[in-house]
Design a protein that fits this description.
Strand content: 25-35%
Number of domains: 1
Number of helices: 5
Structural class: alpha+beta
Order of helices and strands: EEHHEEHEEEHEH
Distance between the termini: 34 Å
Length: 229
C-alpha cells in the first residue's frame, strides 16, 4: 500500500508568538528581535521547520525510554515519522510540514478590533544577578488572534504490506499526541515567559493519493478530532 494523506486545520495564536527572523541590518531604534515574515507581504508566518522540530522534540521526550546519547537514537515510532539519516537503517521522513502564512480573514479581524498591526513590540529585560546590570531589549511578536492554515502531508510507506494499516493507525496516534503536546507547550522563543501558546482548530485528514482503506482514514480523522485540551 502506498499513498499520501493530507492533514489540514488551523493554528490559532493564543498568546503573543515570537519566531525569530533576521534582517540585513538593524537601524538605530529598530526592534532588536524581529519575527520571521513572509517576504511578499511582510506578515508573520510559521515555518514548517518550527512545527516539525518542536513536535519531534516533544514526542522524543514522551516516547524515548532512555537519555539521548547519539544522533538518531530516538524511538522507532519517532524515526518512522520524522526520519533517520545517520543510523544503520536510514529512514525517510513520512511527514512534510508546509510553511503557514497568516490568513487574510484573521488579519482583517485583528485590524477591525482596533489593533494597528498584526505584530506588537514587547519590551523585555534581563538583570545580571551578580552585577545588577540590566539588559533591556525589544521583542516583536505576532499578536494573539493570528490564525495560520495548517497543512501536513503524511506519506504511507508499507515496509510490511501485511501490517500497513495498523502502522498507519499507530503513526496517526503519535501525530495526534504530538499536536496535543504542542498545545500544552509553546512554539518559538520565550515560552517560559508566556509566549507562543497555540491551539489547533478543525483538524482533519483526507487521502490525496493512492488507494487507502476508508476505515483507516476514518480512524485517522477520529484521532485528530480528539486533539483538544
Amino acid at each position: 500500500m502506498y499513498g499520501k494523506i493530507e492533514i489540514t486545520g488551523e493554528i490559532e495564536v493564543i498568546t503573543g508568538m515570537h519566531i525569530g527572523g533576521s534582517s540585513e541590518f538593524s537601524a538605530i531604534g529598530a526592534v532588536d528581535n524581529a519575527v520571521v515574515k513572509d517576504p511578499i507581504n511582510h506578515y508573520p508566518m510559521i515555518p514548517g521547520s518550527t512545527l516539525k522540530g518542536k513536535m519531534r522534540t516533544l514526542l522524543a521526550r514522551t516516547y524515548n525510554d532512555h537519555y539521548f546519547t547519539k544522533h538518531d537514537g530516538d524511538d522507532i515510532r519517532i524515526k518512522r515519522l520524522f526520519g533517520a539519516a545517520n543510523s544503520d537503517t536510514a529512514m525517510p521522513s513520512r511527514l512534510i510540514f508546509s510553511d503557514a502564512f497568516l490568513t487574510e480573514e484573521s488579519r482583517q479581524e485583528i485590524l477591525d478590533s482596533g489593533a494597528i498591526s498584526v505584530t506588537e513590540v514587547k519590551f523585555e529585560n534581563t538583570i545580571n544577578r551578580l552585577t545588577g546590570v540590566a539588559n533591556p531589549r525589544q521583542m516583536e511578536r505576532a499578536v494573539r488572534g493570528c490564525r495560520f492554515p495548517l497543512r501536513v502531508v503524511y506519506e504511507v510507506i508499507a515496509n510490511d504490506p501485511d501490517n500497513a494499516a495498523s502502522e498507519v493507525k499507530e503513526d496517526f496516534k503519535v501525530i495526534a499526541e504530538g499536536f496535543k503536546l504542542l498545545q500544552l507547550d509553546y512554539i518559538g522563543g520565550s515560552g517560559s515567559r508566556g509566549y507562543g501558546k497555540i491551539k489547533f482548530n478543525n483538524l482533519s485528514a483526507r487521502p490525496v493519493m493512492g488507494q487507502i482503506d476508508a476505515a483507516v482514514i476514518e480512524n485517522c480523522r477520529k484521532l485528530l478530532e480528539e486533539v483538544t485540551v
